[in-house]
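@channel sequence for tomorrow's demo:
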Amino acid sequence: QVQLVESGGGLVQPGGSLTLSCAASGRIFSINRMSWYRQAPGKQRELVADFATGGSTDYADFVKGRFTISRDNAKNTVYLQMNSLKPEDTAVYYCRARIRTTCASSNDYWGQGTQVTVSS
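structure tokens (generated this afternoon):
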């Protein structure tokens, strides 16, 4: 079994910063891709940032220049550094990872989500 556990969410004032973490554990052969998504009330889940195996990163336009995704392969952990937070960044943030549990089996896994609230 594979688990993704997120942490680091909370309440922050506009303009503030937070760092989210997502640690993968369990039967892991390799991790191909790790990403962050978010879902605000009444809205669809959307991609925030993506970190591919080769080291390339991609960001949604609405976070470019403010958020940074990074990865610690030794710890099977992905981070999301969020700066200059805005009220519209308020959402539940989810981690997603494409994980190989064997050399021939690859699946997508999701974390349980962590709430980020930006408010004064």
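heads up for whoever presents: The radius of gyration is 14 Å.
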